[in-house]
Specification:
This protein starts with a helix and ends in a 15-residue tail after the last helix. With about 300 residues, it is an all-alpha fold. Helices cover about 75% and strands about 0% of the residues.
Length: about 300
């Protein structure tokens, strides 16, 4: 129960982080994509710094959840980040969240609940060996390179979605390394500081953060957030089962599990394709800054 509460709080903190980072990233020059200068531009904005503070809080809450729960339990609960994001974004950008969006959020929530009840995940009892780390790192790196290469080749919302998927994979593997790292907590701070997984977690986390900033810079939040929110828990659950020996129910239970994942996917697609939200955001920006940069004299949409 403690792991569930901590995971939901982590999802809320991540939602605040996403909205604040999107608010900052939408004003960055387009030519800063995939360049270190993007970070230099963002770090001077209070909204981005607030987003990073919320992201760190979410990171710590997630780590605390993983000390008592497995990846297959904690990570799917992070899907709750999406409805939290809609609430926070609607408040910060002062936009009404229409009924169709709540339908998408309801589908996501029902899918998550159905998946967790059907899967009934239990923590694993083993630590991954060297071969598991080599294979998982190679597969993850290959998927990340493929997503980024495809994102560079395309433009528009598709780029934002692909980079959102890449960031989700990166954060999923960060959670895997986090799970390995928290196993060393009982040994004390000195032992923890010398653990290879701690520094690997920091490196992968920073790379994932860089991918997320580029995703938020490339397209609206309604394109990035579903890709990020769904990819992270799905990949993390697979890592937990394959690497840590976590258990989820199979056999007949796979039908409701797949139905739950289907509802999550349906809600994500419905949300990302909801044009009225993007149009409402565009019109809002046009009223605030009719002469600013962007398509037809508007700023990029905040969502």
């Amino acid at each position: 129960m403690i792991a569930v509460v901590l995971a939901v709080l982590a999802a809320a903190a991540n939602a605040v982080a996403s909205v604040l980072q999107r608010r900052a990233a939408r004003g960055a020059p387009a030519d800063e994509a995939f360049r270190p200068g993007l970070f230099w531009d963002l770090v001077r904005q209070p909204a981005w710094l607030g987003g990073i503070a919320a992201l760190i809080a979410g990171f710590l809450l997630q780590a605390a959840a993983l000390t008592t729960g497995g990846l297959a339990l904690v990570q799917p609960l992070l899907v709750a980040e999406l409805p939290f994001t809609m609430l926070v974004a609607g408040w910060i950008f002062r936009m009404r969240v229409p009924p169709r969006t709540w339908l998408a959020v309801g589908a996501l929530t029902a899918g998550l609940a159905g998946f967790l009840v059907a899967a009934s995940p239990t923590p694993g009892t083993r630590l991954p060996g060297l071969m598991s780390w080599v294979v998982s790192a190679g597969v993850t790196a290959g998927l990340l390179v493929g997503c980024v290469a495809a994102a560079v080749a395309v433009g528009g919302p598709a780029r934002a979605v692909l980079l959102g998927v890449a960031a989700g994979l990166g954060f999923a593997y960060t959670a895997v390394l986090m799970k390995r790292t928290v196993e060393e907590l009982p040994e004390g701070a000195r032992t923890l500081a010398g653990t290879w997984s701690l520094w690997a977690m920091v490196a992968v986390g920073l790379c994932s953060l860089f991918l997320l900033q580029n995703a938020l810079h490339s397209g609206p939040l309604v394109a990035v957030q579903p890709a990020l929110t769904v990819t992270d828990p799905v990949a993390s659950t697979a890592y937990g089962v394959a690497m840590f020996g976590e258990d989820i129910r199979v056999g007949p239970w796979m039908l409701p599990e797949l139905a739950g994942l289907g509802l999550i996917l349906y809600g994500s697609v419905l949300l990302s394709r909801h044009a009225p939200l993007r149009e409402q955001a565009r019109l809002l920006e046009a009223r605030r800054d009719p002469g600013g940069p962007g398509e037809e004299g508007t700023q990029p949409a905040p969502w």
